[in-house]
Design brief:
- The protein has 148 residues and is mostly helical.
- Helices cover 88% and strands 3% of the residues.
- The chain is built from 3 helices and 2 strands; from the N terminus they run H-E-E-H-H.
- The protein has a two-stranded antiparallel ribbon.
- A hairpin with a 6-residue loop joins strand 1 and strand 2.
- The N and C termini lie far apart (141 Å).
Length: 148
Amino acid sequence: MELLSILNDLEEFVQNSSRVPMTKKVLLDEEKLLDFLDRARTILPEEVRKAKWLVQEREKVISESRQEAARLLEEAQREVEKRADQSEVVRRAKEIADEIIMKAEKASREMRLGARDYADEVLSKLEARVEKMMKEIEGGRLELKNMK
């Protein structure tokens, strides 16, 4: 920070200059004062350029840090989900769910078979009644034929 050095030298120059008695004023060597100002003007653009570069670098580092933080957060979330899937609780819950599904499928199969057996039994009884009715009809028709 060459500019700070020049400003410090200027301050020291003012403090060490002769004072006007009974006032707060000082007598300065004009040529030396102008020299300090010229040096400051020469250095200032370079200092501003460095400050801009530092600001840009700072913004770049912040942006990269945010991206890295987001990436790490996503990675951590994936890891948490992965571990949750692998946990004992989830494994046990899956076993229970599989067992419930198996029992439900077995009950469903038994109900289908029971319904089919019941329908077959009802149809068998209906068939027997129809056959009995057919025999009664044939008997009635035969009686009618014999009456002639």
